Amino acid sequence: MSNNDHEARHLETLDRDLRRFSRLEVATSQVGRPFVGSGIALSFIVVAGLVAAFLFGQGNNTLIVVLAAMFGAYMALNIGANDVANNMGPAVGANALTMGGAIAIAAIFESAGALIAGGDVVSTIAKGIIAPESMGTQTVFIWAMMAALLSSALWVNLATWVGAPVSTTHSVVGGVMGAGIAAAGFGAVSWGTMSKIAASWVISPMLGGLVAAGFLWFIKARIIYQDDKIAAARKWVPMLVGIMAGAFASYLALKGIKKIVKIDLSTALLIGAVCGALVWAVMIPVIRRQSEGLENRNKSLKILFGIPLIVSAALLSFAHGANDVANAVGPLAAIVQASASGDFTQAISIPYWVMIIGAFGISFGLFLFGPKLIRMVGSQITKLNPMRAYCVALSAAITVIVASWLGLPVSSTHIAVGAVFGVGFFREWDAERRLRKARITVPERTVLAPEERRRRKLVRRSHFMTIIAAWIITVPAAAVLSGVLFLGIQAIAG
Q1: Mean pLDDT in runs of 10 for the chain (494 residues)?
Q2: Exposed site from 155, 182, 310, 316, fewest CB < 10 Å?
Q3: Neighbours of 179 (CB within 10 A)
Q4: What is the value of pTM for the model shown?
């Protein structure tokens, strides 16, 4: 055999070895990716504990506060992984935002909402779920809040792993209730407040779904089904964007800036009306310019809804950061206050460093683990385009305002996901209606078999049932887990 043959064979063997090494490297990176995310998350939790140790000082309860801060950081990570998907999912599913863009916008606006407008006083604890004085001693109260914080974080983590968007506020409520029952019996729970929260399980998604379906019907009837779609869009899109601006202005005035200034409902609605009228006037020439040269088809309409959809996602994130983060870190704030002063029966004020843990934890959780739930909400329940996603975002703002006016407790998670369901079920109904109409005009049209009709459903029933089941069992599951954890902590602490 010649030297050239030997060299060729040697090179061929080397190529095979390099290909094996390359495949091994890819496989290793795929296996290692989840561990990298978990490692970063664990590092953040440890840093949160160190920050708490540095800021709280060398008191008798420093170790307790450090543990609570680590549990709070863990909870914040889970909020970012689960709850934020409801705001960003529709925009990503409609291809108005990339996944990276959505994560960047959500991280900025969630943190801004938490740090600028968050941290309002949490009356007693978790909105009056339990009577703190029923706990008896400071130690029992602290153990109960520790159990509530850890149980709610574990439940949201499990829901994220399963792929179910759940209310983190409801998880905290369940955790506080379960620990309260384990510590002081069923009499410690405010069952009137709990009945209102249970009612919100039904009210929130129903209201969100109906409002979103109503707006989608309006867009289809007034724009999509018109002969001249572009002319119809020039007339109605500025008005729809004005309604969105007015709704968000009222929403943020009512819910997002209550730490800076207190605004009643009538004043918030007046602010919204003024902002809505101004935006409507500004958008008329903008939409006219955007629509120049567009073809008279549905695909062209998506361009006109892209920017309003991105803005709505950012504003929803700001409002979510302002409201829900405070609820999630409420038990941590209660532990810090009780440990520092020994007082656990008065209103709980949230220290700024606790809000920082919440804000940064949400950003890390969203970046590391958020894409799974964003995809679920944005594309796996039903297919969204910019018009449908716009209806979801608009529904989220309007439903909160209506619920505040009626005095109804609602969940932002349930509203947003309920709106996605509402859009999907409306599309199913509208498709059936148009199909029946087509059969009347074309009698010989083939009738679909029942199996094919089920296959063509526009809302995935498996996801629908999983999410509904997760909603129903969130409070009782978090409560049972919290009760068990409280008894375990109490036994260990002796």
Answers
A1: 58 57 46 68 92 76 89 91 83 86 87 75 58 81 91 93 85 90 88 82 87 93 90 91 88 69 83 94 92 85 86 83 72 84 71 85 87 84 87 85 69 85 90 78 53 59 85 92 93 78
A2: 310
A3: 36
A4: 0.82
